[in-house]
Task: structure prediction
Amino acid sequence: MAAARRRQLHFEKGLARWLAPRYDGSGVKMHGKAGLIMTIKMRLLIVAVPVTSVLLLANFLAFGEWLESIGVIGWARSVNAEYVTGTAITVIVALLVLLPSMPESARRMCAPSARCPVCDESLRPGGRYCPACGSRI
Result:
């Protein structure tokens, strides 16, 4: 119950920021309906989100039909039937879960080697001094 109340308070706090009274540069409160004003950002969101969603939904089927006409959908189905089996997906997921993350020392070894700014000699990963000229890196 406490977590739900915290979420509700967090939502109300965020909403209060959006609907908070605004002040002009001189500190005078600007008035709107019920003492609140609608900012340009709010107006933009109220207009842009519905317009964008309507345009995306209206063209969703047209995009799918275009992909079907050029053959991408058929090719994807054949690849799916041939190569993407349940066993392959299970093995890939198991490998991703079981492989440990790379330690910092191995990450430094795999990094591209740096060059010394003084003598242009290649440097060892993680080294602080150039082995050729002795300058600090």
Observations:
- The chain has a mean pLDDT of 77.
- Helices lie at 2-19, 40-70, 72-83, 86-98, 104-110.
